[in-house]
Amino acid sequence: MDSSIEIGTEGAGRAVHINVQELLATRLLVQGNSGSGKSHLLRRLLEESAELVQQVVIDPEGDFVTLADTYSHVVVNAGDYNEREIAAMGARIREHRASVVLSLDTLDIEAQMGCAAVFLNALFDAPREHWFPALVVVDEAQMFAPSASGDVSDAVRRASLSAMTNLMCRGRKRGLAGVIATQRLAKLAKNVAAEASNFLMGRTFLDIDMARAADLLGMERRQAEQIRELERGSFLGLGPAISRRPISVKIGATRTATRMGTHGLMPMPDAEPQDMRTMLFAELETQVKPPPPPAPAPVAPDELIRRFAEQAATDHGDDGASDNDADTPEIDMPDIDGAIITVLEDMLADPGNAFHPESFLYQDFSVRCRMQRLARVPLDLTQFRRRFAFAKGGIFEPAQPEWQELIGAAGRLPDDMLAPFTLIARAAMEGSACPDDDALARAYGTSSSGRVRRLLEYMEKQGAIVVRSDFGGRRSIGIPALGVSTEAE
């Protein structure tokens, strides 16, 4: 089988080929400043070799997902999966020889590095019977194999650098051929760049990068100036899979293109300045902030005491008993439960009650029960604490049979954790999204996200929940005792 593909043409119009079989054994390094045509070169290489070899693309910007429109590539959006799922997917890719584009564009830089490390390690650690040949293309390789520490944590940087080093240094025996592209050689770890035997060097302007490129191409320093003068889409190539001497290559056309297109000039809008201002600010200007409600008039202490005394004289006889108590029959049990639910709903309608101390809430509950014409407070402090916690989690009738399993699962937790646990468990039972940190904080009676994280860690250590996060930062929580899990949010 012919393993050569046409990558472009020399200045004289002669076709330039890359031997894919040789490339699998000797790897490729592509370098060029932004706008030099690196992504176009990689796309041409992937399109021309799509029918010859399995391809795995680490795509930090989502540039190569359009390959799936024309070829058999499968796009994996990394933000939709967690670490364990990405690792499992990497193993299956080796087993089934699937060509895949791992799109990382929805993740931040630290998550991209962590995800790429897990994915590359899974490719590398595949069992020997799955060591099929594959091109592993890594765009913006300086992100995943930086020469110096940056804004990410050291643990993530070391993991990503180790995975890239394994790919370039030890991947050949496992069938993995690294094709890495970088904007700047000076930012790429030297032990990663040094393992490539084939080079395609595009336009670059910094002296340090030109000097390293000239060294890799076997050129004298004074010849390095021509690297600065290369046109967009033109590269200097050298290596056993390309040519035994440095040649200039104009990369050929591609069948697919990035969905973002090219950023060329286009006519400016012809709206008049006043019309443009109207479009930008009109809606904002019409949103008039409502005036604050008037402050209540101050009441003197003597007047306040007089009003209380008059109200007490109206409501009670001389013996202190309510005039209506003897005439009003006590409400039966179903009505008492209904009154409790009404009181709890009214209390939860006040946002401030999420943060009041327990003693204040119980006093408020007692007053509201009297307002509901209950002869006595139906719950003691302990009963109220649990009933109010379940109500904050959305369960106003915990005696119902449908909630007994949930209440049993909550039995291993302290009373102050019942509300956030109930909120999570009810969402899991209903198959809805996982409550966010703000909702859990309100249920827990705090405004600290740190306390929410420690709360979840404690409940997980107690075996009450299992927290799972994907690379996109979306969290889902499972309840082992109930066998259910929330949707990711």
TrEMBL record:
Signal peptide: none annotated. Keywords: ATP-binding, Nucleotide-binding. Transmembrane segments: none annotated. GO terms for molecular function: ATP binding. It comes from the Bacteria. InterPro entries: AAA+_ATPase (IPR003593), ATPase_Atu1862_pred (IPR014588), HerA-like (IPR008571), HerA_central (IPR002789), P-loop_NTPase (IPR027417). Pfam families: DUF87. Residues 24-318 form the AAA+ ATPase domain. The keyword Nucleotide-binding applies. The keyword Ubl conjugation does not apply. This is ATP-binding protein. It comes from Sphingopyxis witflariensis.
